[in-house]
Design goal:
This protein is of the alpha/beta class. It is 34% helix and 22% strand. It has 2 domains: 5-82 and 199-277, Rossmann fold (3-Layer(aba) Sandwich), CATH 3.40.50.1000; 87-194, 2-Layer Sandwich (Hypothetical Protein, Haloacid Dehalogenase-like Hydrolase, Chain: A, domain 2). The protein has helices at residues 23-34, 51-57, 87-99, 119-129, 145-149, 165-179, 200-210, 228-233, 245-250, 262-270, and strands spanning 5-8, 38-41, 63-65, 70-73, 78-82, 104-108, 111-114, 139-141, 155-161, 182-187, 190-194, 218-222, 236-239, 253-254. The longest helix has 15 residues, at 165-179. It starts with a strand and ends in an 8-residue tail after the last helix. Residues 274-278 have low confidence and may be disordered.
């Protein structure tokens, strides 16, 4: 197959547990780009939280963020396409969050908003503070998440975390039933809530086709439930060794975990290293 695009999830896939990109992956992806491949990040993260990785890879492609809720162009610092939550949907969701005592991080505009600093938020803020100031994502503590949801332009998603995963699962079912919103697991203790119809696979397909290509020409790498739509549609869907069983079940190929050089091996096998042809 003549693959043209490499689509990469970040957490649990391209990134190690220390939030680093392996040197082998960097080299392989750089060589693939030199040979003509397009590399695109497809992540659950907000676009303000992927600067270090986007810059390390030296990309010029837009990034698919918040599980497909938006396509962001770093060259023009603008949203190219998006399907955000509506203000009334956000209000109803926040009311449910308060009723069931579920804490959330709201991804909106150019930052992430929270009312209560959960362990996940504290850890993420500590990671952010370790970055150069120009790469730090924006976190905003607010007195009322409901009020904040009414004072932003676009809400990309809500990220819910809780050590009680059964509680999260039950709450997600309530949200889907009562509000008709989409719930996807992006980590073992995180459920993301967004506009129905959004997915990594859908947004990636739209962008790939805008490039005059097809999903059959895509190699996609992922590890969690929010990667299912992307891997299913790709010409070659690659699951990490640390992926959940459901992702492994639909993958065309399973490689080592995110601390090993499996991504580099796959990329090197399918793209010519132009330095070898000089």
């Amino acid at each position: 197959m003549d693959y043209k695009i490499i689509a990469l999830d970040l957490d649990g896939t391209l990134l190690t547990p220390e939030k680093k990109i392996l040197s082998e992956s960097l080299t392989a992806l750089q060589n693939a780009r030199k040979s003509g491949a397009k590399v695109v990040i497809v992540t659950g993260r907000h676009y303000v939280a992927i600067h270090p990785f986007y810059q390390a890879l030296g990309l010029n492609t837009p990034a698919i963020c918040c599980n497909g809720a938006l396509l962001y162009d770093y060259n023009t610092n603008s949203v190219i396409a998006a399907d955000p939550l509506k203000a009334d949907q956000a209000s109803l969701l926040v009311d449910l969050l308060n009723s069931y005592n579920v804490h959330s991080l709201m991804y909106a505009d150019d930052g992430m908003f929270y009312q209560e600093p959960t362990g996940h938020i504290i850890r993420t803020e500590l990671w952010a503070k370790s970055l150069p100031e120009s790469q730090r994502p924006i976190f905003r503590k607010v007195s009322s998440l409901r009020e904040a949801s009414q004072n932003v332009n676009a809400i990309w998603k809500f990220a819910l975390t809780d050590a009680d995963t059964e509680k999260l699962q039950n709450f997600g079912q309530i949200v889907e039933r009562e509000l008709g919103l989409a719930c996807e697991w992006s980590w073992h203790d995180q459920v993301d809530i967004a506009q129905a119809g959004n997915s990594k696979g859908k947004r990636l397909t739209q962008w790939v086709e805008s490039q005059g290509l097809s999903m059959s020409q895509v190699i996609a790498f992922g590890d969690n439930y929010n990667d299912l739509s992307m891997l299913t549609n790709a010409g070659l869907g690659v699951a990490m060794g640390n992926a959940v069983d459901e992702v492994k079940a639909i993958a065309d190929l399973i490689i080592g975990d995110n601390t090993e050089a499996g991504i580099a091996d796959v990329v090197n096998n399918h793209f010519v290293n132009i330095t070898q042809n000089v």
